[in-house]
Amino acid sequence: MSEETAVTHPLTDRKVAADGSIEGYRASHTLPIRVELARQLRRRRTQVTLALLAVLPIVLLLAFELGASQNARRSGGLVDLATASGQNFVTFALFASSSFLLVVVVALFFGDTVASEASWSSLKYLLAIPVPRGRLLRQKAIVSGMLAIAGLIVLPGMALIVGLIFYGGGDMVTPTGESVALADGLSALGLAMLYLMIHLFWVAGLALYLSVSTDAPLSAVGGAALVSIVSQILDQITDLGSLRNYLPTHYSFAWADLLSTDIDWTGMASGVLSALVYGTVFLMLAARRFATKDITS
């Protein structure tokens, strides 16, 4: 903008553009990722959540060591095989946490992000900086995604370390009796983690939508978790037939197909598609809702 089209602010003596912005203001420079990430990492809820995910494998180890009469069983389900090797221990940790704990973790990071700012009455001050609404929502969603991914890595990562130390690096034993070598097993577990990250995208989208729709963080987090629970209950009703395929949690355990030497990708492909569709719809609803949200009250 040329100086002829700008005026000088009477208090700051800085140039003011026609749209009212101060000279040098760039919307793309507001609320950088590093700033928002630092803010969220300093929050107690982030530190406690990540710490609990890191400690959970140790709790599982103690439960197996104190409560089991036989270790390293070579047959049975995922629970029975949990102590057969370090890989089996990781698999059990994912199996035990993916349907609820990881859902709550993702819902916490996404559901709390905007609603907490609104509950603290700091949201309107962020927008008055000014941070454009679309950018604020995007930056917060990106940081929430980074924290959620960190949580999804911390749990199996710690489980792998604990499992390898206490149960060794032997072959993974599947419920069908197959043995999977360490390298192949780790690759399968990496793909399982990637699948879970994509699958929980629908939870992230829903939690973010609820976060911009309420000023109560607990409502946003609990609402997303409750929808997941209801979906899982409905998925158990066989009378619904093929309608269950459209439930967002129907393919929650499709990653278990990776535990076979002959992998069937059909369930995981359907799960990825379902998660992307649901997640995208919820994110679009969140963006639309936040664009018109009244944040002055």
Largest sheet: 2 strands, antiparallel
Q: Helical content, roughly? A: 55-70%
Structural class: mainly alpha
Strand order of the largest sheet: 1-2
Euclidean distance between termini CA atoms = 35 Å
Q: What letter string, H or E per element, gives the SSE order?
A: EEHHHHHHEEHHHH
Mean pLDDT: 85
* Structure summary, number of beta strands: 4
* Rg computed from alpha carbons, rounded to a whole number of angstroms: 23 Å
In terms of DSSP E residues, the strand content is under 5%
Oligomer: single chain
Total helices: the number is 10
List keywords for this structure.
single chain, 297 residues, mainly alpha, two-stranded antiparallel sheet, 4 strands, 61% helix, 3% strand, globular
